[in-house]
Design goal:
two-stranded antiparallel ribbon, DNA-binding, about 5% strand, homodimer, Tetracycline Repressor, domain 2, about 190 residues, mainly alpha
DNA sequence: AATTAAACTAAGCGTTTGCTTAGAAAATAA
DNA sequence: TTATTTTCTAAGCAAACGCTTAGTTTAATT
């Protein structure tokens, strides 16, 4: 017995996510969100509570958007090669127009650091840990690797992803290709 | 025949730099700068023009602060080992209290991306290029390396520094040590 | 057709932002 | 001492910030 919503939450969050991805959290104002999401501030606040709530949902949407390439890694059974392919897929995934946008999670960690609110921090950390565990799984597919080596290589690859994220935003294709090739050389 | 300044520009910029380093550009307000620098807004604006001016000077101060470990790299003649030592020195350099602050230049690139003002962007790019050329110099000390390999390895190391910068802010010592050791294992 | 409850619009709330300015204080030169 | 010039204090500017709310519109239920 009431009026129906003129938007779907998942649709407007998708648009919010892209804005946050390009601009970062602080540099994205609620007025900008209004325009990009195509709904009034009232609707934003009634659906998501506050700006922070919009952001947390955006992070979740980002994760499921990344699932396309994460599943490729998950379903691969060619060890280190699958991880290398993931690095290249990520580069394609992050591409905007010529320049990359980086990883939204990495960008957020860099911007907010440890002053991110606890519920957000949980989402960010889960993301990193899930990715690392995918690396571990693929590394273990090579039976010659000791468990200790797998752990150390997983640490290496996780930090390397941070470099790729930031690199994608400021470096050219040659530099990024040299980077990835060198990472997986001799592994 | 006039009143004398009660502060030295280089002293207050040092304090401003540390604030920007911990908080980032946007999250550092002029009121915060006032308190940290210990001078009134009038003095800030008469000495540096605007907030952006304070930041540009802070970046320059950061670079000369980094000179301590950059000179060690510059004066080293043990090739790849000198670069590895630089990575460890950087980690020590960036340490705040337990957690690292990352590289101010990398943090800034991540926050502002390509919407940084031109004069600031010049400073940021010069920093990266200068560092890369130090890597090239040390790599060339090994006469067995071809010029092409040196270029590719320099690209690899530059992007790896970005990873180290972000990693220093969110990862523990074991993860970071694994990262650095693995980088130089391959070279 | 009347009722009702949620979704909409748009104006405006108090704060904070970067920055300015009028007037007082200080230090040198005459 | 007096005049001059710069620095300092502190109040205040317009604009933008995140967020709220009064009043209207819409759609399902009676």
């Amino acid at each position: 017995m009431a009026r129906t919503k003129q938007y779907k939450e998942e649709d407007v969050i998708q648009k919010a996510m892209n804005l946050f991805w390009r601009n970062g959290y602080e540099a994205t104002s609620v007025r900008m969100l209004e325009k990009e999401m195509g709904i009034n501030q009232f609707s934003i606040y009634s659906s998501f509570g506050n700006k922070h709530g919009v952001f947390v949902e955006s992070i979740k949407a980002y994760k499921s958007e990344l699932n396309s390439i994460r599943n490729i890694l998950k379903n691969s059974n060619n060890g280190i090669l699958g991880i290398k392919q993931f690095f290249y897929n990520f580069l394609e995934f992050t591409k905007d127009n010529e320049q990359g946008k980086g990883c939204l999670v990495c960008n957020t960690v860099s911007e907010l650091g440890n002053k991110a609110e606890p519920d957000l921090m949980v989402e960010l950390m889960k993301f990193t840990e899930e990715l690392r565990s995918l690396f571990v799984n693929n590394l273990k597919q090579d039976k010659l690797r000791t468990e200790d080596l797998v752990e150390r290589e997983a640490n290496y690859l996780t930090t390397s992803m941070l470099g790729l994220s930031l690199g994608s935003r400021i470096q050219n294709e040659t530099e990024l290709e040299d980077y990835i090739e060198m990472i997986f050389n001799k592994m």
